[in-house]
């Protein structure tokens, strides 16, 4: 059962790996899209074999996510937006798989977290494998994945999430120091070589909030924060020029314009639209405007599903943060806070909350960590009705 649950999660990760032609290993465009998009439907089949009775646990977060489908369905009822039907169906299938996985949410053995780390580790392994041809991997001066072609921002995202999860697990005593050091060196090195500012800023913010949630209870966190504070102070005083050059990436004045993103953002905001399009948008798309990538979850959501989706994205983040606030201090709370803060910071220059993407998958992972385990729920129920508490083995639940 655990293997099939893990396989389902791996397939969801594959589905979120956006296919880009032009990798070192030539994969035809049709084959590449079939692999990524077909993995979603295989995941649906696998999860149905393990959840045959279609047991769904009540879940506020997924209920909010499901409302995205309602907005997309309203949009495709307009004849001019009928082309978004397939994207809407794909999003509905993605959310259905997440619902079918809810019986395994809240597990104390962190099954889904470990599955996510393993899947991202394999992806980062392909990035390292591509370094055998450094001339191709650094074509734009930034490290990209040339085995399964992925641009530097996505590679940085995978590296930052892997780095952050490993560090939080180590701070909580769930991961050995040698393994954490190895992961931190590899993932951190990849992150630096991608020259991606968004991923670095989101990683720092996520680790800061996750660490603060454990700083009272964990002496290891206090020592790490003190050591990092000293190292950062020394680095700022001695390496400020190198740090500024890394952040600028040779773009000069474009740094304040976020590499030209603000130009597209102003075009999206100034585009003419009627009241219906303002509320429900133009339908799910590839998050571009006039052929240019929007690169902002909030503006992309406004373009595709209007103010309706923008409000839902805000409610999703707010619900996860409020739930984390009332969750007992521990590893699950720290991991969830890291994921939520990372996604929230990255959402200003990245997209994905309203589509079957890695960001939505990681928000769902955060929601799974904040959900009470089946054991705790049954104990509370038995205690409420005066029944003997059932001692269930978590791995077999």
Fold and architecture overview:
By secondary structure, the chain is mainly alpha-helical. The protein has one domain. It contains 17 helices and two strands. The chain has helices at residues 2-16, 29-50, 60-76, 85-100, 111-129, 134-137, 152-171, 177-194, 197-214, 219-238, 240-248, 261-270, 275-280, 297-325, 331-346, 358-370, 374-384; strands at 288-289, 292-293. The chain has a two-stranded antiparallel ribbon with strand order 1-2. The longest helix is centred in the last third of the chain and has 29 residues, at 297-325. The model is unreliable at 387-397 (pLDDT under 50).
From the helix content, strand content and strand pairing, which structural class follows?
Answer: mainly alpha
What is the averaged pLDDT score? 86
Low-confidence stretches: 387-397
Tell me, briefly, the overall form: globular
SSE run = HHHHHHHHHHHHHEEHHHH
Query: Would you report the number of β strands?
Result: 2
Radius of gyration: 22 Å
**Share of β-strand residues:** under 5%
User: What's the helix count?
Assistant: 17
Residues in helix, %: 55-70%
End-to-end distance: 10 Å
Strand order of the largest sheet: 1-2
What's the number of domains? 1
Largest sheet: 2 strands, antiparallel
């Amino acid at each position: 059962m655990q293997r099939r649950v893990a396989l389902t999660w791996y397939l969801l990760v594959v589905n979120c790996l956006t296919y880009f032609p032009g990798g070192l290993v030539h994969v035809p465009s049709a084959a590449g899209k079939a692999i990524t998009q077909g993995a979603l439907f295989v995941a649906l089949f696998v999860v149905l074999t393990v959840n045959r009775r279609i047991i769904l646990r009540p879940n506020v977060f997924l209920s909010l996510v499901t409302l995205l489908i309602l907005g997309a369905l309203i949009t495709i009822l307009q004849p001019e937006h009928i082309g978004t039907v397939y994207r809407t169906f794909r999003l509905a299938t993605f959310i259905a798989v997440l619902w079918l996985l809810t019986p395994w949410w809240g597990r104390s053995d962190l099954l889904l977290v470990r599955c996510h780390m393993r899947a991202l580790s394999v992806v980062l392994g392909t990035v390292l494998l591509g370094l055998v041809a450094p001339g191709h991997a650094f074509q734009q001066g930034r490290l990209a994945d040339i085995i399964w072609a992925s641009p530097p921002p996505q590679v940085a995202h995978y590296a930052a999430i892997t780095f952050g999860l490993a560090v939080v697990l180590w701070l909580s005593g769930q991961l050995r120091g040698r393994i954490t050091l190895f992961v931190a060196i590899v993932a951190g090195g990849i992150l630096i070589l991608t020259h991606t500012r968004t991923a670095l800023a989101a990683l720092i913010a996520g680790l800061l909030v996750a660490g603060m949630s454990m700083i009272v209870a964990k002496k290891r966190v206090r020592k790490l924060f003190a050591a990092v504070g000293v190292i950062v102070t020394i680095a700022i005083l001695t390496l400020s020029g190198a740090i500024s050059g890394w952040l600028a990436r040779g773009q000069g004045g474009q740094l304040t314009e976020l590499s030209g993103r603000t130009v597209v953002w102003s075009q999206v905001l100034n585009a003419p639209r009627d009241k219906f399009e303002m509320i429900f948008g133009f339908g799910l798309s590839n998050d571009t405007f006039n052929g240019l990538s929007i690169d902002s979850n909030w503006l992309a959501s406004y373009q595709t599903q209007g103010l309706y989706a923008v409000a839902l994205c805000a409610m999703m983040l707010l619900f996860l943060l409020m739930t984390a606030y009332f969750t007992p201090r521990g590893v699950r709370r720290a991991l969830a806070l890291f994921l939520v803060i990372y996604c929230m910071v990255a959402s200003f220059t990245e997209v994905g909350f309203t589509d079957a993407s890695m960001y939505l998958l990681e928000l769902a992972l955060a929601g799974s960590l904040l959900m009470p385990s089946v054991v705790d729920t049954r104990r509370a129920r038995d205690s409420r009705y005066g029944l003997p508490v059932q001692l269930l083995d978590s791995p077999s639940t």
